[in-house]
Amino acid sequence: MDIFKIIGAIGVLFIVAAVLLKDRKKQNMSFIAAGILLEIYSIYIGDMVFIVLEIVFIAAAVYEFFNLRRVPSSSLPQ
Q1: Could you tell me what percent of the chain has a pLDDT over 70?
Q2: 57-73 pLDDT, tens per residue?
Q3: Which helix or strand (DSSP H or E) is residue 42 part of?
Q4: CB atoms within 10 A of CB 34
Q5: What is the spatial distance between Cα 7 and Cα 41, in angstroms, rounded to a whole number?
Q6: Contact predicate 33/10, CB 8 Å
């Protein structure tokens, strides 16, 4: 199997894990890791739509991760 397909598959597993996680910070870290891995795969396959999508996905996850650090955890929705 091609190494880039393995990287993409691991990225998908990180998304599945993030959906199942209850801790928002860990969830966002998993989304960031997934986005990076899927970005590598999308560059490999050369799909511009997927490349842009992953850039936006990573940016949104990073933005939320850093905003969660400023908000007390007691005020976050469960």
Answers
A1: 87
A2: 999 999 998 887 675 65
A3: helix 24-45
A4: 24
A5: 7
A6: no
Angle at 54 between CA 38 and CA 67, to 5 degrees: 115
Q: Write the CA distances from 57 to 2, 45, 53, integer angstroms.
A: 24, 18, 6
Q: Which residue has the tokens 């650090």?
A: 69
Q: For residue 11, which of 34, 31, 41 has the smallest C-alpha distance?
A: 34
From the list 4, 27, 25, the residue with the least C-alpha distance to 17 is 27
Q: Which residue has the tokens 């396959």?
A: 45
* Cα three-residue angle 8-13-17, rounded to 5 degrees: 150
78 residue type, one letter: Q
